[in-house]
């Protein structure tokens, strides 16, 4: 397996010109595209339509090239968007291609691999429950196998998109005599994101199945995955898993590493994630990156979170009490700037909402580096 | 001269308890307080009343201690507030005291000095004109003398607050048959901030008087000071100058340095400002700060600015086109996080609006370090 | 009893000049002031400090006039502020004075009366429970007696301010081994506002005590008062009740009436509230108000609410899904404009949060009219 | 000529299902659609992409039905979107069809007519100048003729969309040695909207050509049209004119009227606009609308504006000083609610920006009523 990583800038949510140019130049074969992960310049909230607009725009670009309808493109390629380019964050997409290897792998040299799998439909009454945890865990194991990864320690980033509850889905469940974890659509997000994160943790052995139960979801926050990054959207009915790791059989030009952000100004963790991908600049505390090191960074994916204590490094933080700007926007602005100050590139993926994704207040970060 | 630097956290704009405690403990003598520079948790805009609320609250604390009315406290002590604690920025005030030295200065060892001066009343028709530039320059020279600084290269930070135009002041000028630079109060900010910054630049020899004219103000942005940090408020009628530098006769426990931020993710400039204050960790590119180095940081003052090109490190930035969050808030969130990631302390002073304060897109940063 | 109603405009949260002028002119006797109800130009959220700033400013005005400390003024006079002047809403305060009658009441002519009462301290573990409901009911009965009102049908507006949970109060309760209704401070608002509203409903016979229980609070929204308007703030420990009605013994120059707003564009209810206060312009459907009728309007108090169904008059509404502007701000902007279009005066009191204050989606409105 | 007016609700910017259903039912013939005028649920600012998303979505619906490409649909049908559904405003589109009359007109009974015309390309250096004024005036005269309207008094609403300056267009002009009215893209909006509005005023005889000059545009605000509603967008290069009026030869089931809103709470003007379209309920001051009258309202188009004096009906207004919510959003929230309180329908078109469209602080409103 050989994974390609192509970052394309976007001048607007419907600007697909850079990918079009890569395809025209023969750099990207549209038939090999398996996923797009990107940031759009919306507000990141329920009324952020830049994500849907971007998806539709890329579908319209690719449909004639693949001989498919736009809807079929949506089924074939995983689109993961996070809205909100606060601070210096720059709208872009990371286009991932997957191809068979044309050269034999080098023994002992694990390279970037990507496995993709989808669960069965998760019913509304299953969202945020152990049923969802187990279905996601099953899909993670499928993705693990597809990626050719045997050791869970080789997994560095697992992006999962799944359903949340909507007024319509709650009503549909109740019409069948079924209860949902909550009747509040917004309130279902922590459960939905939390259950999918615990599914990752279960599959990778980060938590024991005995420790898990319906009651633990969105509450026992001491149970978590350090490589899961999950989101929930009203338009989905199944969970889609993108699993990134380093595999012995892969021959990609990239490796991936990860680390845990202690808070949104944890620059050391940014370096540690790259270090884990083979940057080899030394331990945290090492010097700042030079141009050569920076040029090797292909993509950074991170989650940003407000401090649940209302304090960062002992100082009071006002994110959670701000009625004008949502705390996720503050958190993304801060973390995005810190990462960009290290990497020199503001086109990075930073999203919000970290239930069961690292300990409370902490968050995962992963980096894909050119070898 | 001996300058004291005391950072106090604030749990709300009217929380003066930490300064009260420092006074009660004898650490701060209220009679020696000459200035407060701080951040409040408002929106930083025209309808941000947290600044006035904080000023009133400190005036009410100090009035009985000084045997003055609250208004008299306002005349005696300079209050400089910037509203907006975006990202990780934490509400606080840096309280500055000034005292006679009790020990003789060490030859060749320049230490933190502070000079304060005020211009005459600037008439509405003078705001944003060469008259204001020259009056500010005169006040800067007075402050320079008061600080005991002979060499302009020893000046590292000049905070100036001055008037902007209001509907009332425009009407008052017109009633006298005088025209103002603009009739738009909001539109007067760049002129007001720009003219005071050019006053600093003129006094310190950063620009030649011949290069200056009314037409240059807010337009010839290639003319600037690299140590000015200016603001404009409707409540002021004169310009208040706080000049920080290192002076041979000062015996403070602090030194100050400064640098120029190339953009809001320029972590190297943060280190350079401290380096200039004697951190001695090496040149930019040096290692990250250890706990000992961090403990020496007493205060950081910086300006944050959106990129006028709409690009940061070659990537498109959406600050200027965002209709939901003002670009100054994006810029402060980003720069505050980057500085805090270096210093480990989110209680830093970051404000917006940089006309004639460094080149377009660039901004000044100063650091006060314990010796 | 004779109640005075004086509306004063405010040019900023700390502008107390109009009340100062009324006092200087002898129009208002500061010793007779019992309450201020007003709007300030903040965001209405947790980080809205304009309310505290306004309170402090009026306390500083009145303290020397009353020979009290600012704190003592706060204990003597009830301050009720709602932050947020969206749309056309204009910052102002309605100052209420209470005096003994100097003329005998006219038989059968009920006039504006005001009773004020405070509960004992409500412990954190009591917030949002039946204990609070009963304590508020007791205080409402005290206020009813003080106002000289025998018939609950003569009560038209009951403003109640009470405590919400804070991180500190939750911790304090838990340290004593007590559980609170929720550990989430923001999440405690519906319980706190709801329990006080049910206390009003209980005292006025709008709901039967048997129908009430801890489980009903913030859940059984079919139980409500149509005259309660409640708010919750972290700075309070007891509930303060301001009860407005028409009493036989009152000789005020005013009467009060109320109605139920079906939604935020229910102009008929605005007219009905005035009608109830003796406007006598006919039933809903009557003509628009002429200048004479408008000049009789002394004050309007209303609550604004988003439609829980997401629809208004059958059309989809986007308030609840807007991540940029809080739905309470949308609702206040809409209702404030509709009321002002009827009354011709944008200085009206419109606040948000209506748990158990009318049926879901509906809200109370009261009008004080000159006789 | 027979004009059809079909209001379709939208559950999201890409929801075209109601128009699809009208087409499927045979109610709307896609070949007869000439324009869509609607509101989308964005923020109405430069980063509001809901307008483009909605246009693309309708183009994709109509392209296969018309045998055209999506781009060709854009050239054939005029799309006019205003972003921002503040307060109660509800996302929707009013679809306008135009057909030959199948029955002879009744003498003396003027009915709804619609003329559409486009100017030549307006060069960047012409934007906001007399060249643009004259080109728009010429297009208005073409539209007038197309609508079959001889008397300008029969024109009640002229919607014009035209170009604004962008960084690219300014640069392009300067490369050719041409200067633009301003180099600031945002600052070009008043010029662009103002010049198109003056073009309407010139064509309809509302201002004399002698009174106009480049210097008057966006400055001589005493010159205006009372029926123009103009907008400017970076994606346009020519001006598109939609002229609505009542024509003797038209046999539509509708009539149109208009009025001038004195401010955003001017409910009388809402009634007057309908009155002008033949509602016949009496003069301003007439009673509120009954269900029968409301059912005749087909569409309302209005502009909302902040008061330039900062006062509405003598009360201070805080729209212009609010740094959190743009004043256009406040104004739309207020006016939209007032109109909906009269019409009973929140699906109305309210947009912002009124340079030379009525006197400062005033704004146009038009209503299309079923006969």
UniProtKB/TrEMBL annotation, chains A, B, C, D:
Location of the region described as RU B in the Swiss-Prot/TrEMBL record: 111-248
Record: residues binding substrate: 51, 82-83, 193, 231-232, 332, 351-352
Gene3D superfamilies xref list: Cyanuric acid hydrolase/Barbituras, RU C, Cyanuric acid hydrolase/Barbiturase, RU A, Cyanuric acid hydrolase/Barbiturase, RU B
RU A: annotated segments: 1-102
UniProt region (RU C), positions on chain: 254-371
Pfam families reported for this sequence: Amido_AtzD_TrzD (PF09663)
Enzyme nomenclature, EC number: 3.5.2.-
The keyword Hydrolase is annotated on this UniProt entry: yes
GO molecular function annotation: hydrolase activity, acting on carbon-nitrogen (but not peptide) bonds, in cyclic amides
Entry-linked InterPro entries: AtzD/Barbiturase (IPR014086), AtzD/Barbiturase_RUA (IPR043008), AtzD/Barbiturase_RUB (IPR043006), AtzD/Barbiturase_RUC (IPR043007)
Active site location: 161, 231 (nucleophile)
Statement: the UniProt record of this protein carries the keyword Hydrolase: yes
EC category name: hydrolase
Function: Cyclic amide hydrolase of unknown substrate specificity. Catalyzes the hydrolytic ring-opening of a cyclic amide. Does not act on cyanuric acid nor barbituric acid.
Assembly information from the UniProt record: Homotetramer.
NCBIfam families xref list: amido_AtzD_TrzD
Domain-related comment: The monomer structure is formed from three repeating units (RUs) that share the same structure as one another. The monomer and the active site possess nearly threefold rotational symmetry, to the extent that the active site possesses three potential Ser-Lys catalytic dyads, but one of the 3 active site surfaces varies in composition suggesting it is involved in confering substrate specificity.
Protein name as catalogued: Cyclic amide hydrolase
Organism, as annotated: Methylobacterium nonmethylotrophicum
């Amino acid at each position: 397996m050989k994974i390609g990583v192509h970052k394309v800038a976007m001048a607007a949510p419907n600007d697909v010109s850079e990918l079009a140019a890569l395809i025209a130049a023969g750099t990207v074969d549209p038939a090999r595209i398996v996923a797009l992960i990107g940031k759009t310049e919306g507000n990141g909230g329920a009324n952020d339509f830049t994500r849907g607009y971007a998806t539709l725009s890329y579908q319209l670009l690719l449909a004639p090239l693949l001989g498919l309808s736009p809807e079929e493109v949506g089924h074939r390629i995983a689109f993961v968007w996070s809205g909100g380019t606060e601070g210096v964050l720059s709208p872009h997409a990371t286009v991932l291609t997957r191809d068979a290897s044309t050269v034999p792998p080098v023994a002992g040299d694990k390279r970037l691999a990507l496995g993709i799998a989808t669960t069965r439909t998760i019913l509304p009454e299953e969202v945020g429950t152990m049923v969802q945890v187990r279905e996601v865990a099953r899909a993670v194991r499928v993705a693990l196998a597809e990626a050719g990864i045997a050791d869970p320690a080789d997994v560095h980033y697992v992006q999962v998109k799944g359903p949340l509850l909507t007024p319509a889905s709650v009503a549909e469940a109740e019409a069948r005599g079924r209860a949902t974890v909550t009747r509040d659509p917004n309130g279902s997000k922590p459960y939905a994101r939390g259950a999918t994160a615990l599914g990752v943790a279960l599959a990778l052995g980060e938590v024991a199945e005995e420790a898990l139960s319906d009651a633990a979801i969105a509450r026992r926050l001491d149970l978590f995955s350090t490589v899961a990054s999950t989101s929930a959207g009203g338009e989905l009915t199944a969970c889609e898993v993108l699993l990134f790791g380093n595999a012995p059989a892969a021959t990609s030009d990239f490796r991936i590493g990860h680390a845990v952000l202690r808070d949104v100004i944890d620059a050391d963790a940014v370096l540690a994630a790259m270090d884990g991908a083979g940057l080899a600049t030394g331990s945290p505390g090492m010097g700042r990156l030079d141009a050569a090191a920076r040029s090797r960074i292909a993509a950074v994916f991170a989650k940003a979170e407000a401090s649940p204590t209302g304090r960062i490094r002992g100082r009071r933080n006002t994110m959670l009490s701000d009625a004008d700007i949502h705390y996720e926007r503050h958190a993304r602005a801060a973390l995005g700037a810190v990462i960009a100050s290290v990497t020199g590139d503001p086109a990075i993926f930073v999203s919000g909402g970290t239930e069961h994704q690292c300990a409370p207040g902490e968050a995962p970060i992963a980096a894909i580096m050119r070898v």
